[in-house]
From TrEMBL:
GO molecular function: DNA binding; sigma factor activity
Organism lineage: Eukaryota, Fungi, Dikarya, Ascomycota, Pezizomycotina
Name the UniProt record assigns to this protein: RNA polymerase sigma factor 70 region 4 type 2 domain-containing protein
Domain of life assignment: Eukaryota
UniProt source species: Thermothielavioides terrestris (strain ATCC 38088 / NRRL 8126) (Thielavia terrestris)
GO biological process: DNA-templated transcription initiation
Amino acid sequence: MPHYDIATRAQALTLKLILQLSNAEIEELTGLSSRTVNSIATKALERGFDPNARPVLILDKHVCDAPRTGRPSKRKVNQDADAAQP
């Protein structure tokens, strides 16, 4: 899934689960594919989002990026500065 900012994800979530627009309408309004909209909605529900709650609360944890997996880079900050100097 391409990276979309939190505001765009929250917008898609509102359109999908609160206003109950179709994926085609959401794609037209936001540019997000149907698959991406479904993924955002599914993850938000898994993370505790309740579309029936009033007032509706969309928290960052509902739409934020998942932690990246894999080994972190070994490169240190001071190595970047040393590499830039001739």
